[in-house]
Design a protein that fits this description.
It holds the Pfam family Sigma70_r4. By secondary structure, the chain is mostly helical. Helices cover 70% and strands 0% of the residues. The protein contains 8 helices and no strands. 15% of the residues are buried.
Length: 173
């Protein structure tokens, strides 16, 4: 590798590695394996080359998508499904005959988190506050220092945007 290639790899790593690692472990995903995912995503960006000529938001989105796909591939892999880290067998009394390992719930949570990240801060505040925090319109209005009608409006448009973001990710009504 030449000095130019070394510099490019260093720049890519310095600019995007921390952001990607935080994204991957937030999924949640094993911190050590997350480092491998980050390295693989950065390597793919370097190999592609053309992606690095695009504006920063495009590069970030591309890297996040690659990292997300790498994690999904790993979570769906036979290795991941058959590994038992703590040595405790799953409870066979589950309604699905013991086949559930929580992966679907994890993937659903990841999908919703990813879709929520596309909302504006204002929309996300009211949607998360109401649905995950169990707060009323009046409580949200007081906490955010806005009128109750504004909370309702943000909730309406936030839910619409969330529904669209989920549809874009393959979730059907």
């Amino acid at each position: 590798m030449g000095a130019e290639t070394d510099a490019l790899l260093r720049r890519i790593h310095d600019e995007y590695a921390d952001m990607l690692w935080r994204y991957v472990v937030r999924i949640p995903y094993d911190a050590e394996l997350a480092r491998d995912v980050v390295q693989e995503a950065l390597l793919r960006a370097w190999k592609d080359g053309s992606i690095l000529e695009k504006p920063d938001p495009v590069v970030r989105a591309w890297l996040v998508r690659v990292a997300r796909n790498l994690v999904l591939d790993d979570l769906r892999s036979a290795r991941h499904r058959r590994e038992v880290a703590d040595g405790v067998l799953p409870d066979r009394r589950q309604s699905d005959g013991g086949r559930s390992d929580g992966t679907q719930r994890l993937l659903d949570a990841w999908l919703v988190t990813d879709a929520l990240a596309t909302l504006t801060r204002e929309h996300r505040e009211v949607v998360v506050g109401a649905y995950y925090g169990g707060k009323t319109v009046a409580t949200l209005a007081e906490e955010l220092g806005i009128a109750p009608g504004t909370v309702k409006s943000r909730m309406h448009y936030g839910i619409r945007a969330l529904r669209l973001a989920l549809q874009e990710r393959g979730v059907t009504a």
